[in-house]
Amino acid sequence: MAHVELSISEAFPTQATSSLEHGSTGFDDVDGRGHLDGLSRWSETVSTAAEPCLLIDRDTTIAAVSTSCCQLLGLGRPFDALGRPLLGSELRLLDFTAARGDLTEQDVDKIPPLLALHSGRLARGLLRVRCPEIEGPDATVDAIATPILTDGQVAGSLTFFSEV
After folding, report:
1. Range 141-163 average pLDDT
2. Are 155 and 38 in contact (CB under 8 A)?
């Protein structure tokens, strides 16, 4: 098995105007000084990424998602997924038993995007996802998530997915 390390360090503040030139992300000029917070800086990167990745805010709302992630998880189009809760009706997380039942609320809290959000630490794990929009077997994905910080506080999490 390949060894993967993910490290996201603080970047220099990005000017809000540079983001606006490429299209508004909905987080313009967050601090009133022309700078964007951690979520804002990552949202443009995630939304244009070729890799399946997802950015959620501290309320577990989808702040940005790549097209390939939408296809992998059956979230529809990226624009339609924005602002929706991660665990909306479209995304069904299943356990790894033969019965393939829905995850319990206790287990849902342990999925990498939420674990990184709540613990403030890197999280990794496998997920079994049932997508009603996609015919065929359930998808099993490897998820690696890291918290995104703004002013030293967890503001969201960034997750990369890989189909297993």
Report:
1. 94
2. yes
Contacts of 83 (CB under 8 A, 6+ apart): 61, 62
Q: Is 43 part of any domain?
A: no
**Closest alpha carbon to 90 in 81, 101, 99, 82:** 81
Poorest-confidence range of 56-60, 88-92, 124-128, 147-151?
88-92
| pLDDT per residue as tens digits for the range 91-109 | 789 999 988 899 998 999 9
Q: How many domains does the chain have?
A: 1
At 85, phi and psi to the nearest 5? Answer: -65, 145
Contact 46, 55 (CB under 8 A): yes
**Tokens 């929009």, residue located:** 133
The CATH number assigned to the domain holding 154 equals 3.30.450.20
In a domain, 112, yes or no: yes
Please give the share of the chain, as a percent, with pLDDT higher than 90. 52
Cα–Cα distances in angstroms (integers) from residue 51 to residues 17, 46, 69, in the given order: 26, 9, 7
Residue 1 lies in a domain: no
Instruction: Write down the pTM of the prediction.
Output: 0.77
Contact 37, 25 (CB under 8 A): no
Residue with tokens 């503040």: 13
